[in-house]
UniProtKB/TrEMBL annotation, chains A, B:
Domain Aldehyde dehydrogenase intervals: 24-430
Highest taxon above the source species: Bacteria
Keywords for this protein: Oxidoreductase
One Pfam family hit: Aldedh
Protein name in the entry: Aldehyde dehydrogenase family protein
InterPro entries: Ald_DH/histidinol_DH (IPR016161), Ald_DH_C (IPR016163), Ald_DH_N (IPR016162), Aldehyde_DH_dom (IPR015590), Aldehyde_DH_Superfamily (IPR050740)
Organism: Luteimonas salinilitoris
Length: 533, 533
């Protein structure tokens, strides 16, 4: 392990500086070989590092609040371009650190998604529509959503080294678009990737005149310090994507300190396959389910981890088809050294709650990398209803649990036992044979999920204004917000700024009588309009 | 005290029923005479009462989710009319229970505000614009804000028997407009008023075909049961207006259970009077401040409890004018038997933190009712900065603390010591002499308050689409939301319902290709429009 003076520096207040007295250090690991990667190690920061970032973040927040929206948009656009310019290096580094395939995943899907997301955020910042300027001329009251007044703390997950990275992903883009600085915690699963992104972010911030401290990053800190950071008065909001245990701890710390916190935690994303659909196209749906579950070695927050099958002989054929597909599939590489055991633990929980193993089930030892066998389990509807909490344990890997309903009447009861999820999907007969069952399920599932799908698997989260990548607790902490999709994602990181009888020249440009761009949509005296007030 | 069988019934699942085995009972008190009022006593409910309301609320939520928006709007309009039809009885009862003046306050201001609020909520429900329907035709994804899937628990405060009543006020109207049932906890300070309102609500719900359980109310429960209720899985969200201690406890319970919670707690609403304004019109501002502070005997969440004066001789004249006004004012009636002592405790906290008493300061014993002397305190800026937390203790009564700044440079430091507040006001010279100081203060105050005022006192919260009756913690729990003003208030009680590839006939009307009203504004493929998709 490298001595302290060769550890990678952290990004504080516009400069890469040596971490002060790190409490530990670590190296990146290539999960496809289980070997530590060369180059510099990374520091585990102590409190003074974080304190310096808080102070710089506060200053940056005050400065960013005065910047024209176009400047923030310029930064986001420039950063998107910088990521594309360094695509080769980023893809190579991310591949080594995560084992995710270079193509198409990293190069053709995730990297363009990330730069595209930044450009959508730029567009939202530039046109200002996300901020909902509202003018009541009779009352003399005007309001608009604006920045929070402090840095937003963003914790990225292990499974998207670009698109959900704390220093480049959706939460980062949304927080910046709303005018806030970001303090990012890199995920230790891909520190080199995060460092490259942070370099690009810093260069873009400098090129576009963002204040020092607008983008900051550290690599790691002990759990207690992370919670202390989340609760610090200088932090304006917290965003997190990851495990339920970590999300719940962060949420508790931030809640207690009274600050907005957005956690995206766990979800089994149930897929219901109704009788008519099983009869009509069971094999095709089995293929879809297998592909969706195997994608990214099952390490997506929207992986369908649970499928509920209507009863009957076609269900048995479906199970058999899926069992063959699963047994024949090669294990994909998992993201971290801890991943195989974590998946094994989840499978053990499902089995001890009564699920039978149909295929796979073990840590894959044939491959050189961290891996787990593609795994299929099965449980009856009756057994599921006896222990629905344990049988909804998320296995973050290539694992799917089939719930074979004992009767059609049981389907709604199974749906009622579902926790809050990001998504649910229902496959039904195209001719309408399942419509009655669909209606009964829809009533139950609608308030339990963020995104309801028909005849489509939940993996693949389009960056669309209509997307909801969110859902009821415990999938997230608030069912009214999405982490993906602009302009909606930006509003999470804003405060409602109301001006009552404030003199006209003191108002922000978006609230003055004259429409600042001519195209800004504002709610003036009861109508959305681009006219002057 | 009345025996159990003469206690007022509670409203459960569409019927007035006797509380089962109440854990206690209480009577309404006339605070202007300190005497218990006649008529029936009111029950303190035990858990089975609340459990029955939860079950009914869940059923009602499922049914309300299927109602056309027009039906909910009809209910809100009908209820507004019913309140106006029973205005005489309501005003008389509220006056007896709260001591608030019949005219203009209750009859001419608060009651019309309440019915007007319900009609604004009806309008929001009818036109549906609050729900932000969003359609992405290329991706096949559509989303709209919809009800939460369970009842919303609303706790009203003591100081607005109509406009913030749990069964009739802003949170009630917003929760219903978003399609949710409400379980209201009446405030024990005005149980008879709440019962009359609940009768009108029930009759209106029946007349417009809302499900039984859409509007329910209980009168009281022990603190522990209130917290258990807030954390119950059947409750979809919690809204509270009241003291910081109670709000924090409720917020903690709801946060832990992972549900949206909106608490409006405490605020001292600082007013800054700059040097030019003091010189130009100090006496006029002193009069305004006195009137704003005395209004409702100082029992408004937007009462200016703290005024910061720029240094100089004009500040001394201002203090003197205010001292005269305060000393000459008659004590108003406070809302509850506990109010005088609570105000006395707050004044004691301010004094022990170094504030000097200039006028008043004691419980008013001359009047027959619960009252506190109009009170003025003063502290230097230097002393304030030594203990800013204690010196921001809210006194919920006719109490104002003047902070006399020692220098102009000290003003921003005083502003920086401010906690999150609902409002801040700045009075400045009309000629521009204070503009530099204003700019410095605005930068600091903007992220610390929801509503920033110029040359206007904060009391009087207009029901405007541009209003923000909210603010950063600890004034509320989230700075992005307002409790007053439609359509924004409704969005708090909604989930984002996303439909991905869902068959067209299964979409809610607001997301189908055809615009259901022809006038519903929807975000379709990147523009707000009323056209069909």
């Amino acid at each position: 392990m490298s001595p302290i003076d060769t550890l990678h520096p952290i990004l504080v207040d516009g400069r890469w500086i040596r971490a002060g007295a790190p409490t530990g250090r670590f190296r990146a690991v290539d999960p496809s070989t289980k070997r530590e990667l060369g180059g510099r190690g990374y520091p585990v920061s102590d409190w003074p590092d974080l304190e310096a970032m808080l102070a710089a973040g506060r200053r940056a927040a005050a400065d960013m609040a005065r910047l024209p929206a176009g400047r923030i948009a310029d930064f986001l656009d420039t950063y998107a371009g910088a990521i594309e310019a360094r695509a080769a290096e980023l893809v190579e580094t991310a591949h080594r650190e995560t084992g995710l395939p270079t193509e198409p995943r990293l190069r053709n899907v995730e990297l363009p998604r990330t730069s595209g997301q930044l450009r959508q955020a730029a567009q939202a910042a530039r046109d200002g529509g996300w901020s909902r300027p509202t003018i009541d001329t009779a009352a003399g009251i005007r309001s608009v959503h604006g920045p929070l007044g402090g840095p937003v703390l963003v914790f990225g997950p292990n499974n998207f080294p670009f698109a959900f990275n704390g220093i480049a992903g959706g939460d980062f883009a949304a927080a910046i678009a709303a005018g806030n600085p970001v303090i990012a915690k890199a995920h230790p699963g891909h520190p080199g990737t995060s460092a490259l992104l942070a370099e690009a972010a810093l260069a873009s911030a400098e090129a576009t005149g963002l204040p020092a401290g607008a983008v900051q990053m550290f690599f790691h800190a002990d759990v207690g310090l992370g919670l202390r950071l989340a609760a610090d008065p200088a932090v304006a909001a917290v965003a997190f994507t990851g495990s339920r245990a970590a999300g719940m701890a962060l949420k508790a710390a931030a809640d207690k300190a009274g600050k907005p916190v957005y956690v995206e935690m766990s979800s089994v994303n149930p897929v219901f396959v109704l009788a008519g659909a099983l009869r009509e196209r069971g094999t095709a749906i089995a293929n879809e389910l297998h592909a969706s579950c195997a994608m990214g070695a099952g390490q997506f927050c929207t992986k369908p981890g649970l499928a509920v099958l209507a009863p009957g002989g076609h269900a048995e054929a479906f199970v058999e088809a899926l069992r063959h597909l699963t047994a024949a599939a090669a294990p994909g590489v998992l993201l971290t050294p801890r991943s195989p055991q974590a998946v094994a633990d989840a499978v053990a929980r499902l089995r001890s709650a009564g699920a039978d193993l149909l295929a796979g089930g073990g840590i894959a030892d044939a491959a050189a990398g961290h891996a787990f066998q593609p795994t299929l389990l099965r449980v009856s509807g009756r057994r599921f209803l006896e222990d629905p909490v344990a049988l909804q344990s998320e296995a973050f890997g290539p694992v799917c649990l089939l719930v074979a309903a004992d009767s059609t009447e049981q389907l709604p009861r199974i749906a009622e036992a579902m926790e809050g999820n990001l998504t649910a999907a229902v496959y039904s007969d195209t001719g309408g044979a399942d419509d009655e069952t669909y209606d009964a399920l829809e009533r139950i599932l609608r308030p339990r999920v963020g995104r309801l799908l028909n005849d489509r698997m939940p993996t693949g989260v389009a960056v669309s204004a209509a997307m909801n990548h969110g859902g009821p607790f415990p999938s997230t902490g608030h069912p009214g917000f999405t982490a993906v999709g602009f302009p909606a994602a930006a509003i999470r990181f804003s405060a409602l700024h109301c001006y009552d009888n404030v003199r006209h020249h003191r108002l922000p440009p978006s609230l003055r009588d004259h429409n600042p761009t001519g195209a800004l949509l504002r709610w003036i005296d009861g109508e959305w309009t681009t006219r002057d007030a």
